[in-house]
Amino acid sequence: MKAKNDDLETVFVVDDDESILEALKSLLKSEGFRVRTYTDASSFLTSHRPESASCLVLDVQLPGLSGLDLQHEMITSGNQMPIIFISGQVSVPMTVKAMKAGAVEFLTKPFDDEELLEAIRLGIKSDRAARKHQTEIRDLQERYRSLTPREREVMKLVVQGILNKQIAAALGITEITIKVHRGQVMHKMKAESLPDLVRKAETLGIGPSK
């Protein structure tokens, strides 16, 4: 069943050739994607971004800001939307530069529709995974912020593999109190086990190796 409204996966297309924009818009809509088209990079940069998974189909040769310049701008600003480049004129250095910067694919016009759709599906899948990861990190950060200063101290020592009695001695409190704090940490962080807590701590940048 296809998604509706804001859940629709979005494909942004930037190309200064109106006929290509119309053809791609028709193709992508027939595949169930929401489509946003632009004839220049600047218009895309100032556009609204839906909250759904998305990717960008980007022409290399554009008036003003080029496709490669736009890719650089997006990376600099932290926009990690997957990019599929399309171009009528392709050089090895151009392709290598785009791919090294993280492009999903680099297709030469005229390209096969299914080849483009496969690249778009890959880009959407990648963006969905990245969004899920970012959501998980935000959730972890919120849980960590819910800990008291003492619970954070205990957590940091626990994930280093230090025993309760050693933590108690280090912090100058009883072992029973450490067990209570440890239980609260496990509960608030929704950790199912010590290894799980360690993984969460490492994701937050406070793991044993930090």
Features:
210 residues, alpha/beta, Rossmann fold, Arc Repressor Mutant, subunit A, five-stranded parallel sheet, elongated
Briefly say what this structure is.
This protein has 210 residues and is α/β, with parallel strands linked by helices.
Summarize the SSE layout with pairings:
Elements: E1 10-14, H1 18-30, E2 34-38, H2 41-45, E3 54-59, H3 67-77, E4 83-87, H4 92-100, E5 105-108, H5 113-145, H6 149-158, H7 164-171, H8 175-188, H9 194-204
Parallel strand pairs: 1-2, 1-3, 3-4, 4-5
Helix pairs in contact: 6-8, 7-8
Main beta sheet strand tally, sense and closure: 5 strands, parallel
Oligomer: single chain
Q: What would CATH call the class of the largest domain?
A: Alpha Beta
Radius of gyration: 24 Å
Q: Distance between the terminal alpha carbons, to the nearest Å?
A: 45 Å
User: Could you name the CATH homologous superfamily of the largest domain?
Assistant: Response regulator
Treating each run of at least 4 consecutive H or I residues as one helix, how many helices?
A: 9
Overall geometric form: elongated
